[in-house]
Structures
1.
Amino acid sequence: MNFGQAIEKLKEGKKVARKGWNGKGMWIRIQVPTEKSKMTLPYIYMKTADDNLVPWLASQTDILAEDWKIVN
């Protein structure tokens, strides 16, 4: 799927990843803040190959990619 379709899946609460990412087990997801959160707007975060969670920004390659997939 393309990046636009991947964003729609994120908005549905799904995790998505690119087949082209080298790290095993990497994915992104949207975090929607609650009233107890310090953040006030939704943001995208990534689970890295070394099992950390970090804020994520798309690269041009990610935006133009057609290899996005839903992760279970």
Note: Helices lie at 3-11, 60-64.
2.
Amino acid sequence: MFGLGDLEGAVMEVLWRTDHPARVRDVLEGLGPDRPLAYTTVMTVLDNLHRKGWVHRTLDGRAYRYRPALSREDATVRALRNVLDASGDPAAALLRFARSASDQEAEVLRTALAEKVRRG
């Protein structure tokens, strides 16, 4: 995910898959055996994500429970917006993207733009 490190992205993936606020231990388990990490490492990553505004946390007893501050889709929009803003020429970048879109992606874009025009 744009703007996140590899481990931060993996932690966000776990949180997006979870339908309830998760404890550090839940996230650690959700990362699976392919990522043998220390509890404190995951706790630090979650703290950093909270500081960056990617997660909300609530105190539950002596531990925090974490949930995403935005949906995966909203995070993707944020990433795309950052890429466009950093491109130097957002219009040119959008045109190149539109030309590279599959037929299905182009149809989704046409429908969304038509809806935007209808709403004003």
Note: The longest helix spans residues 103-119.
3.
Amino acid sequence: MRIHIAVTTNPDVEFELNRSRVLLAPGEAWYLRLSDKHRVANKGSTDRVHLVIDALVNDWATALMERAVHDRAAQTQPA
């Protein structure tokens, strides 16, 4: 699994994954399945720097991802 941590970015970075815009704020860690269709264009005047970590998938990582999907689904459910 590949984890991206935005170190520096700017509001003029256009990052799309499966035709949806993704906003990666500095300090956030993201798992992105970049084998899917994606594109990135830095149209700003400052650099976009990410720390990219390649990690093995194990039981801990699987549980972490499952929990994140569950939490995200709970956030999008109507009250």
Note: The mean pLDDT is 92.
4.
Amino acid sequence: MKSKKIKNNQITTDDLAFSAYLKMKGYPLIKSNKIKSKGKSTFTFNIGDEDDLKVLKMEFINSDFLVYYNEIRNLKKLI
């Protein structure tokens, strides 16, 4: 998971699964940018302090949501 702290209580990430998880948890998306040269997007969210970010990452890694997302990716590879 690649994410970068940019300001107090904001995080920018290009990880689509983590971004969806943050949205699902109710964190507001405040900015989305498409990186044309890489064909990727970044998402910026308001979160709490840095300790909250560490907790969020651990919750995400241990969540059923990540299992679900990985299964979607596996099924997409079949089609």
Note: The chain has a mean pLDDT of 86.
